[in-house]
Amino acid sequence: MGARGGIWPAVYARMHWILLGLAALLPAVDLLLPPEFRLADLVRPIFIFAVLGMGLNIVTGFTGLLNLGVAAFMAIGAYTYAIATCDIYPFQLGFWTALPLTIAVGAAAGIILGLPTIRLKGDYLAIVTMGFGEMVQDSLKNLDVITKGTQGINPLPSPTLFGYVFKPETPLPWYYLFLALLAVVVLLTRNLERSRIGRTWASIREDELAATCMGINSMKAKLLAFAIGASFCSMAGGLWGAYLGSSGEPGNYDFQISIIALCIVIVGGMGSVSGVLLGAFVMIGFNAILLTKLTAFLAQHGWTSSDNVFTSPSNWKYMMFGLALILMMRFKPEGLLPSRRVKAELHEYDKDVPRQAGGATT
Amino acid sequence: MKCSTFMLGPVLLAAVVLGAQAQSPSTIKIISSLPHTGSANAQTMTMVNGIKLAIEEVGGKVGEFSIVYEPWDDASPERGQWDPAVEAANADKAVADPDIMAYIGTYNSGAAKIAMPKLNQAGLLMISPANTWPGLTKPGVGEPNEPMVYRPSGKVTYFRVVPADDIQGLVAAQWAQEMNCNKVFILHDRELYGQGVASMFQKTAKKIGLQVLGYEGIDPKASNYRSLVTKMKQKRPDLVYFGGTTQTNAGQIAKDLRAGGLNVKYMVPDGCFEEAFIRSAGASNLEGNTFITFGGVPGDKLTGKGKEFYENYKKKFGNEPEAYAAYGYECGRVVLDAIARAGKKDRAAIVAACAATKDFDGVLGKWSFDANGDTTVKTMSGNTVHNGKFEFVKVFGE
Amino acid sequence: MGSEDAEDQREGGRELMTDSEVLLQQVIIGLSNGMIIALIALGYTMVYGIVELINFAHGDLFMLGAFLALTIAGALGLDAVSEGALFSWGILPMFVAAPIFCGGVNWCVDRLAYRPLRNAPRLAPLVSAIGVSFVFLNIGLLWGGLPMEVFNMGQTAAAPKDFPALVSNENLLGESDITLTISQVLVFVITVPLMIGLSVLVRFTRLGKAMRAVAQNPVAARLMGIDVDRVIGATFIIGGALGGVASVVYALYNNTIYFQMGFRVGLDAFTAAVLGGIGNLPGAVLGGLVIGMIRALTDQYIATEWTNVMVFAVLILVLIFRPAGLLGTHAQEKV
């Protein structure tokens, strides 16, 4: 697609701004629709997951480190935000001070995990991040003196901006708050990608050995990717806390969240900012919008019944979700909106049929 | 972006077609927000059936209003259980739809914590067939800021037809004492419900002088609990209490107790009061030494309205109503009753009518809502398992 | 109450277990659980070693095997063994059918979902594997809803199902406080020969040699005339079959199956594979046993709620000092 001439390459390069622009227009379109077709309410979690995806994209998409533990950073963010703002703790910060704090704590957590483990190769690192996710979730449950355990911390005060209070019952200001913050993250990510460190990450992803031979300190660059990625994920957690008005339960940040984040990045297109945006829309929207509407539609027409396991649509949701993932990968393995660099690499692979496999079976 | 246009097209078209139907003044919508996807699906189905039965019994009409019921799912496939995002979206959606007058839900107390403030702000009636965390309604039992934090408008708009866990924990500990079990080991599943009821059990147990040998949280996804059983065996408890549900492996614990040679009494809360518990544990492992507490009396012991419900449900759905079916049915009836007494399609009036529910002739007996929105039913029944069936033993707290 | 007798016996009975008895008991439990984990870990590690894919669907494939076993039990009308009997012969068809089924399904999945992606970006098959795992989960859910003669699985599709105790849970050591059941012995009787057989296969047969060649360098292997796709397919079949055996052993040992059971076991097994050195068969077995032991000992001496944390803490510690796992060695990097 990208190779075609004309306006398309320019459009493609700015796709993320186009997507954000469309999102900005969505509430206006919504006004024309009857309530049951309005989407804006359902889109808010998508923005938060897009921020989460941006964080993972830096680690996995840009730097090529598989991270299966972003749920942990999201949990750390949500709990940091909750502890910083909730009135049962002594801090009681506002949204705009708590959010930077959340980001800083996330970065610190990324460095703490990264320092001892960043040397690990490929999937060894992945499994450590996955283990980290489980450890954080269990620790949040067990340390109930601090975290209230399974109770979760709630409710959290509404954010304010120049005296304006974001109330839960008025969704529109929230919508633009999250969209604006997402736009900031997108801008930052794009700048990072095109900066020196972004090129360093790309060189590590493509060939770490060659990169280090060229004098790049790959440990430092990887650690930085880990920290920045974790800070974005943590920010997503903070926003999530603000959105729910609650830290949620520790069980809400389980392995499935990490899986979803990974799907967002890969389905969207590894290393592609616009891909992550579209990926978040597709992955979160699939259940929140498509499956929900479909179920309601089927129920309305009496095509379903709850007295049999097989005729109840909710019993088929896993199947539809799973098949969608398989089919998407089957037909768009490089993602919906792949980054140009990854696409270029792919074509290189065409000549070099099965990749080299490192592991040895004994 | 291709995707957005792709989706907007049919949506716009459908909007034109359906636009005329929306907002009929004589239609009242009741929705339920319960977890359909994942492991709690079975309980949800019985609750939904109960609600449907209640609506069917009045012919889908209350006064001049026709009642439309939509069961919403608050779980998602990617979570496999209730999903905070979906619950929040459901609450927002319900608030935004002016036809919705009642929100039946939630199943999980954690989900209630998210939906409650949102619905309360909008003055929408919320009534739960299953939330048992005491702090949702009762001051001084849960966290210090509960329950006022769930009522930003200051009014009570949340009600529940199930007795909360403080009552259940109390009754369970007393029952243990009655059976001469003075040394207890308490387990919980580290989830809101299970840990809540286990902590209430522990509190009472300490108060009435039982010796608590241990209080541990298990991993509900573990494949077995044999090492834990060995640990307990060394301490020789008279009774093992597990705060948890069938889904969080209550059956596996029963099995491992027997397989590990720890033949002690085993007590569980109402989350296990379902056929599925017996089926998952294997009847022989429960025979005679398993005790289940439950709010209300079992279906076949019901009288009056309750007996009628028991028969009707069995006839319509072909199986015995379980605990949650009765709660769901009760929720449905309370809502319909409140709408009838309010007599108008107005959220505030319906909430007020619901709060005024008094001496309601329900399946669980005659009861009212107290000032917190709790049912006055405090009847708990003790049950055991005999020949693969629950067997009613006694009633507490009457 | 039915337990009156048992209670009297206990009250008038022996003293508490001694500390060394407790330790011995925990070792027995840890090793039996660890063996099952190891068996599943082998499936992960074989597939990873050869195609570098973390097969997320493996745990759920294992779950399907257990459902097949339960269906066989239902179809044959099997019920728990009577007192005195050691085991029911009804487990034989399970040990035949489940591996064939799981191996076959795994091969089909590779053919349909993973093989078309061999040249795709490295992580694309990972998402396919996640998708397959969701599909399996759904099949398990619906399977649990099938009306069955003996177990009546219907209506409560998602609830845990009782798997009849076809292998006796009676204590072999009689009146002793230490329990060693036939089902625990069975775990070893089945898994140890299987593991030996597998290492013989990989080490000495033509297929085994081909597998090792493909794992080291698929391009070179192809140049040497090895049918790479066939070898990969065989690996999926063997890995799946091991998962199938593991599912029957698991079901007979724990006596409960449910559609989400693949998650924790799968996570443990994958951790075991990494702990031992991914791609390394003895490493996977060692990793499984280590994890089984950590679990049992943490349950006993620390607290159950910290068990999962301990497993991963040990994993991270081991990897800091041995970055390629306990028995793994990093292949020389090629420039």
Structural summary, described in words:
- The complex is a heterotrimer of chains A (362), B (398) and C (335).
- Chain A has a domain at 43-253.
- Chain A contains 15 helices and two strands.
- By secondary structure, chain A is mainly α.
- In chain A, helix 3 (40-62) packs across helix 12 (255-268).
- In chain A, strands 1-2 form a two-stranded antiparallel sheet.
- Chain A is globular, with a radius of gyration of 21 Å.
- Mean pLDDT of chain B is 84; it is low at 1-22.
- In chain B, the strands form four sheets. Chain B has a seven-stranded mixed β-sheet. Chain B has a six-stranded mixed β-sheet with strand order 2-3-1-6-7-8, with helices on both faces. A two-stranded antiparallel ribbon of chain B has the order 4-5.
- In chain B, strand 11, helix 8 (250-259) and strand 12 (265-268) form a beta-alpha-beta unit.
- Chain B contains 13 helices and 17 strands.
- With 335 residues, chain C is an all-alpha fold.
- Chain C has one domain.
- Chain C is built from twelve helices and two strands, in the order αααααβααααβααα.
- Chain C has helices spanning 4-11, 19-51, 58-75, 91-114, 124-144, 182-204, 206-216, 218-223, 228-254, 262-276, 281-301, 307-321; strands at residues 161-162, 256-257.
- Chain C has a two-stranded antiparallel sheet with strand order 1-2.
- The longest helix of chain C is centred in the N-terminal third of the chain and has 33 residues, at 19-51.
